[in-house]
Amino acid sequence: MKITIKDASKFVDQEVTIGGWLASKRSSGKIAFLQIRDGSGFIQGVVVKADVGEEIFARAKSVTQETSMYVTGVIQKDERSPFGFELQVKDIEIIHESLDYPITPKAHGPEFLMDNRHLWLRSKRQHAVMKIRNEIIRATYEFFNEEGFVKVDPPILTGSAPEGTSELFATKYFDEDAYLSQSGQLYMEAAAMALGKVFSFGPTFRAEKSKTRRHLIEFWMIEPEMAFIEFKENLEVQEQFVSSIVQSVLKNCQLELNTLGRDTAKLEQIQAPFPRITYDDAIKFLHEQGFEDIQWGDDFGAPHETAIAESYDKPVFITHYPTKIKPFYMQPAPDREEVVLCADLIAPEGYGEIIGGSERIHDQKLLEQRINEHGLSEDAYKWYMELRKYGSVPHSGFGLGLERTVAWISGVEHVRETIPFPRLLNRLYP
């Protein structure tokens, strides 16, 4: 019977066949230990010379790293194994021999590993990160479906660059200029006026020449928009969503978290509600911590966000940023026009902002005023302004960056490990 490794628990004491690759091996006298992977997981195959004979044992000892094979044996419980099971091997059938596999058990530099990303994905660590990413994606769909959201797909190609082209990738759309999307938000606002509560989940692009561990050129965004939802309600949805995906990973990815050496005690504390601090109070706090360079009206950098986050054991909302440093579409606070009803959600442990969100301007005249103040094209925004012309309502939304969230939950340092094939400032290969 052919099975996958993840289903091994269902076949204890039964003879099965697993199609897989050799991740690594070691031998001790007349026993060989094969670490076998099949994409669904890793299992140790134990080959005893007295049980399999000379030919099979010689095959086990000579098989090379990443050789593909069918391994037949009996599944047995093994309390010493992180997986909990092992395979008592009876037969090995080589499918394709792998020679001179470049990624060996020795240490390799990050550039070498990135050049071989197509192969590095096979490693146990990268496998664990990708499984956690997949669980976050699965939990995202589950959360929004259960909360009555409709999935809507905004376009990746846009016909204008109304906020300027400095961080956009330009391309040709037949005989017109086009740009890769930085965000689906504006289109999601239109969708919310049609469907009430919506979310998108897709790639976005930033032509930002940043080399930090938090930045990618191409990354994936989860962007909900909600009609009739105001600022405080928007924060509640965000903290419920983040709590939900963290708890889903804790429930379904314990093996992967253990593989990465993640301190799960810190994740277990991630339950709504989350603390909130205003921008004003954040500035005061930073001054008390010795950050004299930051002044009211400045945006926060990574050191500032980290200092604030270190005061909490949960993600923290920083709210009510100055109007002048935030996008034109954010609703001003009713009692203070110099700040807007927005919040950034800062993850603990130095991982920075994972969500940016706000209540959106729903008054047509105010939106027109903001567009003019920012020197934007009214023609480019004609359709967007019409959303306020025909039955406008208060509405809010946010965007969560998937890769930063994966990095935080899995505990890896650099976002380049959280996407299968990262696009960085100096990397378009493989």
TrEMBL record:
InterPro entries: Aa-tRNA-synt_II, aa-tRNA-synth_II, aa-tRNA-synth_II/BPL/LPL, Asn-tRNA-ligase, Asp/Asn-tRNA-synth_IIb, NA-bd_OB-fold, NA-bd_OB_tRNA. It is found in: Cytoplasm. Homodimer. Transmembrane segments: none annotated. The gene is asnC. The keyword Plastid does not apply. Belongs to the class-II aminoacyl-tRNA synthetase family. Residues 130-430 form the Aminoacyl-transfer RNA synthetases class-II family profile domain. GO terms for molecular function: asparagine-tRNA ligase activity; ATP binding; catalytic activity, acting on a protein; nucleic acid binding; transferase activity. Keywords: Aminoacyl-tRNA synthetase, ATP-binding, Cytoplasm, Ligase, Nucleotide-binding, Protein biosynthesis. SUPFAM superfamilies: Class II aaRS and biotin synthetases (SSF55681), Nucleic acid-binding proteins (SSF50249). NCBIfam families: asnS (TIGR00457), PRK03932.1 (NF003037), PRK05159.1 (NF003483). It catalyses: tRNA(Asn) + L-asparagine + ATP = L-asparaginyl-tRNA(Asn) + AMP + diphosphate + H(+). One of its GO terms (biological process) is asparaginyl-tRNA aminoacylation. This is Asparagine--tRNA ligase. One of its GO terms (cellular component) is cytoplasm. Coiled coil: none annotated. Its main location: cytoplasm. Its EC number is 6.1.1.22.
